[in-house]
Amino acid sequence: MPDSLLDAPERHELRPPEFAARLGRTVVVAPHPDDEALACGGLLALLARQGVEAHVVLVTDGAASHPGSRTFPPERLRAVREAETRAAVRILGHGDRVHALGLPDGAVPAPGTEAFDEAASRLAALLARLAPATVVVPWRRDPHPDHEAAWRLAHATRESAAGPAGVRWLEVPVWAWHRGVDEAAPRPDDATAWRLDISPVLDVKRAAVAAHASQTTGLIGDCPEGFVLTPDLLAPFERPFELYLDPANAR
Asked: Cα separation of 204 and 240, whole Å?
């Protein structure tokens, strides 16, 4: 058996599209604008089709993706990226259910700081208000500092008195797909993996990803070092399934 749960993902149980409804009201905690569509666009679209409410929480503002651009300075890019997420979530069927924490892209506060405690408290209060049955967070070792930081923030809410009780927590890889055999990869003792069949809504997911034009096209042409989701980077999210990780030792 492969050591990484991301190796040969087709071996994991494939749950039918109708399974999405069993998750109940769902909140997706997205490290950046676009992660909601990449990682969970299929789930979100299925929930909408099945009449189940879902919300997206944006942890960072995404304003650091094109640091050298003069036409899209951070203030403008911040607004563009949030607008792209709102458009994507509407495409996925959830209207304007987007909640932005507005933390700085690339500089999410570290645990043990006052800023971290304040952000965790805000997230806990938001989750308590939304009262989800399921919360989807980034894979804990997803190899991007903001993804790991978003997981730490979400995890902190589980131990907070203000956080939601009795909630199912799922984790989802984004960048770990591209480093699936190194230390970032989830292992069998970390979680149980299963796939969700998103084939009926794959075109909807693709449209939601495409709504993030600042990340998927040459929209920002004056920043050669800017981030772009190339076909190779998008490949793991073009499949007719999404992989979810159910932590083995959830607390």
From this structure: 12
Task: Give the integer Cα–Cα distance in Å for 85 and 36.
Answer: 8
Q: Which parts of 86-201 are beta strand (E)?
A: 98-103, 134-138, 168-172, 191-197
CA distance 135 to 127: 9
Whole-prediction pTM = 0.94
Output the six-digit token pair for 129: 């208000």
Q: Is the pLDDT of residue 40 over 60?
A: yes
Tell me the C-alpha distance between 78 and 22, whole Å.
34
Cβ neighbours of residue 83 closer than 8 Å, sequence gap 6 or more: none
User: What are the structure tokens assigned to 150, written together?
Assistant: 């978003």
- How far CA 1 is from CA of 4, 5, 6, 9, in Å, comes to 9, 9, 12, 12
Q: Which residue has the tokens 């987007």?
A: 98
